Amino acid sequence: MFAQGDAYARAVPSEIRDRIGEEPLDQRDRWLPPGPEAVPLDQVEARGWQALSDLLFPVLVLRDQALRHNLDLMARFCRRHGVSLASHGKTTMSPQLVRRQLEAGAWGVTAASPAQARLFRAFGVERVVIGNQVVDPAGLRWLGAELAAHPEAWICCLVDSERGVELMEQGLAGSGVRVPVLLEMGMRGGRTGCRTPEQAARVAAAAGASPSLRLVGVECFEGIRSEADADVEGLLSGVRQVADSLARSGALDGSDEVLVTAGGSLLFDRVVHHLAGRWDVGRPVRVVLRSGCYLTHDHGDYERGSPFGTRLPEWEPLRQALEVWGLVHSRPEPDLAIVGFGKRDVSYDVALPRPLQVRTRDGATREAAGLEVFRLNDQHAYLRLPPEDPLAVGDLVGCGLAHPCTVFDKWRSIPVVDDDYRVVGAVRTCF
Question: Which of 262, 280, 295 is the last residue of a domain?
Answer without folding.
Answer: 295
